Amino acid sequence: MQGFSGGGDGATAELAHLQSTMSAIEAACTSIQMHLNPAAAEATILSLSRSPQPYKACQFILENSQVANARFQAAGAIRDAAIREWAFLTAEDRRSLVSFCLGFAMQHAGSPEGYVLAKVSSVAAQLLKRGWHDFSTAEKETFFHQIKQASLGIHGVHVQFIGINFLESLVSEFSPSTSSAMGLPREFHEQCRRSLELDYLKVFYCWTRDAALSVANKITESDSAVDEVKVCTAALRLILQILNWEFQCNSNGKKGVNVFSSGIRQDAGLSNRSECILVQPGPGWRDILISSRDIVWLLNLYTALRQKFSHEGFSIDCPIAVSARKLIMQYCSLTGTIFPSDNGQLQEHHLLQLLSGIIHWIDPPDLVSKQIECGKSESEMLDGCRALLAMATVTSPTMFNQLLKSIRPFGTFTLLSTLMCEVIKVLMTKAPDEETWSWEARDILLDTWTALLMPLDSAGGIVLLPPEGVDAAATLFTFIVESELKAASASAFNDDVDSDYLHTSISAMDERLSSYALIARAAIDVAIPLLTRHCTERFTRLHQGGGSLDPTETLEEVYSLLLITGHVLADEGEGETPLVPTAIQRHIADSVVPDKNPVVILCSSIVRFAEQSLNPESRSSFFSPRLMEAIIWFLARWSQTYLMSPEGSQDSSYSSKADNMHQVQSISSGQTVLRYFSEYDHGKTVLDIIVRVAIATFMSYPGEKFLQGLTCYQLLHALVRQKNICIHLVTLESWSKLAIAFANEKMLFMLNASHQKSLAQTLVLSASGFRDSESANQYVRILMGHMTAYLVEISSKNDLKRVAEQPDTILSVTCLLERLRGAASASEPRMQKSIYQMGSSILNSTLILLEVYKHESAVIYLLLKFVVEWVEGQISYLEAQETTVVIDYCMRLLQLYSSHNIGKISLSLSSSLLNDAKSEKYKDLRALLQLLASLCSKDLVDFSSDSLEAHGTSISQVVFYGLHIVTPLISLELLKYPKLCRDYFSLLSHMLEVYPEMVGQLNNEAFSHILETLQFGLHHQDSEVVNMCLRALRALASYHYKETASGKMGLGSHASSLRNPKGELQEGIFSRFLRTTLQLLLFEDYSPDLVGAAADALFPLILCEQGLYQKLGNELIERQANQTFKSRLTNALQSLTSSNQLSCTLDRMNYQRFRKNLTNFLIEVRGFLRIV
User: Fold this and answer.
1) Could you tell me if 782 and 736 are in contact, meaning their C-beta atoms sit under 8 angstroms apart?
2) Greatest Cα pair distance in the chain
3) In whole angstroms, what is the distance from residue 217 CA to residue 731 CA?
4) CA atoms within 13 A of residue 1118's CA, in its CB half-sphere
5) pTM score above 0.85
6) Three-class SS of 181-222
7) What's the pLDDT tens digit per position in 543-586?
8) Torsion over CA: 30, 36, 40, 42 (sign)
9) What is the dihedral of CA 1024, 1026, 1028, 1034, to 10 degrees?
10) Which stretches within 587-624 are classed as H helix?
11) Which of 33, 498, 550, 1161 has a CA that sits 20 to 30 A from residue 432's CA?
12) Residue 1065 phi, psi (nearest 5)
């Protein structure tokens, strides 16, 4: 092979050429470092890796250059060229490349340029993986024998480090999550991963462990850092990497558990903020990891290192200490079938060994925290907390607690509670926005409690703690509440706190408070009375103050208590109605009489306190906007679980004063609370209080956007989402007052525009509570009638053009459109008729406003969004005649928008104004595309009683006509906006797939624009956009092929050459995209996931243009100067269209066959085609 040839008459000339190449690369590397003409320098370096067979030059540079960066680049060039040319390298060439890289790294093991050696080792690992299926077992063993000798220290410490470093690179390459791209199918990487795991991974572990053992004694006996420290650190790091392997097979080769799919918590509300990766290697690793004395040795090594932290070269954060602690923590994560079925005895013994060494990092907690505050590094303490988290993740609460009892007079829960109390104590002395070690420790320990109280296999069931665990949880929660109250009180007069904190505190604290809630529920018999006592004390203190005392501190404490209590009592809904927490259902002891149920007492006291905000005197005294935020948040969260729950309303004969005491005693605590707040007891009264409190936030707290946003988006939405509540909501006088105020009160017209939209949506959704559709529609007509009449009135003014630009008029129109959007988005079958009437009554008005406000982009956008949401909610239910009206209106709107060229971008604008104009136009066009997509849905979902086609209307014709109007406004520059781009290609792909016959009816201008955008989309960086374009091409090509095969026209003239809008002659669509698709597949970069979609497009394209395909194939073959390449390409092209019994029929089987053929074709030829 020319890359390795040498000698002969031209040796002198070849040497001069090699030296010239080396000088050029050295100069380029120096230029980059000096920032001198970096583009030219990068091009020079790139030319080396892209040149054919540059191996001799690269080897020459590695062996002779005095510039480290040049040697680094030469190693990279070997990698790039070898991966690219691997298919036509001889077996000897492949072996030589790997051997050279390994030999070079070991030969120069003592070099100070470690990054160069690491790069060469990495290249050797990548090449070994690339040839994993090509090298014989004997060849692999030859490589690994060399590595084994190196890693065991036979050739010295420096070579030993290189051997371990190579194994680290190799394991990284064979792990799918860290492997390098090689342009090969996923199956190749998976086969390599499986082979290494089954045949070599344990061997590597043993070599690495032995390497660490061989140098450990010298490290522990030395008073300063020695060369062996580097070797031991690398060995520990590699063992950790092996334990982090994505184990999927046990010792018998059977597929096991993927730790990355099941070993990490996926809870959205309580996701682990601290990384904890489970290690599940299977029973085949038991003797190596558990039965050996590796763990004892590792703990002894770290103990010896701890004693040396004051010596030169050693510290608590030195690399070897950090690596040792990480490995100890990872041993704590061992779980699964590596432990036998012995009731957990071996696992308990294993964890006890580890805890015996770790305990000194965290106990006693007060002494440890004091040392950290005095300047000691916190890393060891934090790692100890992470070790507890790992143990909590892999054990049951009972085993977890039992671990420490073997070496301490108390259990692990007591230590966990004490440790967290100490951390919180330190944290409370810090600034709230200062992320200190105590902040991180608290999060890790909270995750530990979460792992114990919500284990991965609990499936939402109840977790029973041992008595000591319950006591520890009670002690900790009590301390948490007291600390939070102290912190709240201390922050009352803190002027340094960012004002934004007031508005973000609820969401920012949510994750932490959810963890607090789990701890509280573990000791629910203590937590609920504790919260009740604190709430009662603060409520009483506020009333006794009577305005004479400053209530600020108490208000902050109440704010904090409401947040904590809300999390303890109820879970977040997340789109579903949350159930009463299991702990509250089963663990409240005194639940016999509802009035004495602790949860009822606590909930009732907070509701009564909220009701006092309706009193003007109390409201002015201490119900500040901030306190009201907490009240509204609590009522929203609490009402989703407890208020008029269907479970609590099942027995209509229930009464809180039931005479049958035995019946009451049989009711769980959860049922007691639900029935107390059901529709048959106190539920309706509480609902009325909640609505009146909501009204107060609108009327009595003007300008408080955050408070009013909570009321709109959380509280009121929570009420109308539940049908059983809506039934009673519409009967309340307070709800009627809210609806009347919304329609008539100026105060509500001054709300934030988005809040008005939300409130309109809520009020309309509540109509689902009426017993019949006529009542629901009448309610919506009355509610929205004032708004539609007002909008018609504005649009009918004779002097509209004069007054339209006045701020008051713009504000009124904006608010009306937002309200109409809200009502339109609330469309349901029961209220469909009235919402259609609402929209149809203002169609002409919206067109007038579109004309008048053509230069007001904000108004135009709101108007378009209203139309989109109204059409989207109505189109599926409309009868043919109504649909025709809507379609006619939409076309008029599109024409009007286009005729005014609204949002036209002027090149004379400044760059900032130009960007603003593009952004405004992007939003408008995206809304118009969504409008067309909504019209498309009529063909997919249609509940009307008659056919639209019978009335002479075709949805496909309408949408294509709409596209014809809209697409000229969509430039390639605007398609760079991701959302607009996706919406456009989604609609275009849908239309071309479902209605390909309509394409033949487009005029040349519209058709050319579609071709231009498809060409753009095929080269888009978003693979989803490329996929949609390929699907569209498949649809067009398959339609045309099937039509022409049956003697029809297909796409007619569009399939042949045509002239673009500039008058230039262009080849037909299928010829053009056959070239483009082949160019993409053979010569450009793309996601491997697109190969299937590309095959599905290419197959019918080839059938449509078989002559052109033969011509393009011949051109590719003739371009090959190398006869071997020419022969391979000829055979590959032949196989592409003939292998696997492929026929010319476009059916599912042939598509699958062509996919396989294309995959094999690309593997065979893509590599050398890209370098020739």
Assistant:
1) no
2) 115
3) 83
4) 6
5) no
6) CCCCCHHHHHHHHHHHHHHCHHHHHHHHHHHHHHHHHHHHHC
7) 886 656 788 899 999 999 999 999 999 998 766 778 888 888 87
8) positive
9) -140
10) 598-611, 616-622
11) 550
12) -75, 130
